[in-house]
Amino acid sequence: MNNTWILGIDNGISGSIALMDPKGKIVMYEHVPVYKERKWTKAKVKKLKSGTKVQHDQITLIDVDRLQALLVKYTSVIPDIHCFLERPAISYNSKWGMHTAVSASMSWAYVVFVLKKLKIERTDIDSKEWQKSLIPEATGNHNKEYMKTLKAGERNDLLKEASYMFAQSICPKFKSKDPGDADPICLCEYGRRKLQGLLDA
User: Fold this and answer.
1) Is residue 196 left, alpha or beta, with left meaning phi > 0 and alpha meaning psi from -120 to 50?
2) Which regions of the chain does DSSP assign to beta strands (E)?
3) How far is CA 112 from CA 36, 93, 199, in A?
4) Residue 138 CA to chain centroid, in angstroms?
5) Rounded to whole angstroms, how far apart are CA atoms 88 and 103?
6) I need a labelling partner for 22 at 20 to 30 A (CA). Which of 5, 122, 123, 164 fits?
7) Rg (Cα) of the chain, in Å, rounded?
8) HSE toward the beta carbon, residue 193, CA cutoff 13 A
9) Tens of pLDDT along 138-171?
10) Cα three-residue angle 88-93-99, rounded to 5 degrees
């Protein structure tokens, strides 16, 4: 049996982290620590009767120090650990703005930096890869005609709900108001199956 522990990280400032032991038990679940920083854009200057008001836009960033401390706390005594990190789904179509693309890219870079610093090996993975393996019924591959009737947002909600239900099937204690929070647990289970050779060829 492969004795590797699995770290699953859902990329992004709203992402989360899960840690699974070699037997498939989730032993840690945390949200990615973040903080707000002044954005690079120019300040907004408003002239009011009471005087000039200067406002700076804010951007949410991953707190690298807290993230490192969190991973050290849970992984420092584990001899064999591998991270499955979800690759940022950056698109250049009209629905994606510069802010979203920059945030996703920066988040990925910060997490990679911490993993390298802690010498934790990683595998970058697209969400479609683990979804196809763990929740194929929600990907639409088995019912493409039905999926065509759904809007993009509805398809995304379907995937999130399926992800949440799957995560609860292996970790019944997991609860969240946002079904998307279940992704790192799914990443862990996919990683465990992959490293232990349990996936279909």
Assistant:
1) alpha
2) 5-9, 16-20, 26-31, 34-38, 44-48, 51-55, 58-62, 81-86, 121-125
3) 20, 26, 26
4) 19
5) 10
6) 164
7) 19
8) 15
9) 776 666 555 556 666 677 788 899 999 999 999 9
10) 60
**Residue 137's pLDDT is what?**
82
Chain centroid, CA 76 distance in Å:
22
Cα dist from 145 to 87, 137, 140, 158, 162, whole Å: 28, 13, 8, 15, 19
Contacts with 126 (C-beta within 8 Å, 6 or more apart), sequence order: 86, 87, 89
Burial 125-149 (b: 16+ CB within 10 A, else e): bebebbbebbbeebbbeeeeeeeee
> 49-84: per-residue pLDDT in tens?
787 777 778 888 999 999 999 999 999 999 999 999
Percent of the chain with pLDDT over 70: 86
Q: How far from chain centre, in Å, is Cα 129?
A: 14
